[in-house]
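Per your request, structure below.
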């Protein structure tokens, strides 16, 4: 596909339905507080269908998922659980089935828009491009 649109660094700008969503997926309350309005910086390195997707949390903690479109990869959830998933590309969106939620990411108007859906609760996070 050669779509290099995802590469860059994005800083958290806003979200919707955070509390409902993290309760649905069973995040512990200390993690819920830590993540609320958290200025997460998402860094995406893209080389064709190969991605390295890193989230930098305030305080120096990072989570990195490395994956190739349409190939099974070892991934980690928001809560730090390890699992295997096959990440797909659908209509320019990255789609991953996490153990208890479906996650999509797309670039929309220069912003990174991520949507996670768990049992009918839709969590939307928007990040602005900073590099």
């Amino acid at each position: 596909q050669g779509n290099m649109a995802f590469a860059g660094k994005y800083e958290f700008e806003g979200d919707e339905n955070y509390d409902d969503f993290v309760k649905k997926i069973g995040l512990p309350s200390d993690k819920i507080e830590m993540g609320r309005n958290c200025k997460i910086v998402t860094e995406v390195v893209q080389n064709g269908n190969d991605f390295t997707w890193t989230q930098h949390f305030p305080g120096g903690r990072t989570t990195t998922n490395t994956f190739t479109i349409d190939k099974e990869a070892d991934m980690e959830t928001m809560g730090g659980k390890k699992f295997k998933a096959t990440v797909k590309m659908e209509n320019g969106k990255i789609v991953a089935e996490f153990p208890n939620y479906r996650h999509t990411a797309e670039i929309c108007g220069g912003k990174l828009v991520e949507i996670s859906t768990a049992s009918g609760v839709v969590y939307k996070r928007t990040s602005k491009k900073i590099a």
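DSSP finds two helices and eleven strands in the chain.

Regards,
D.
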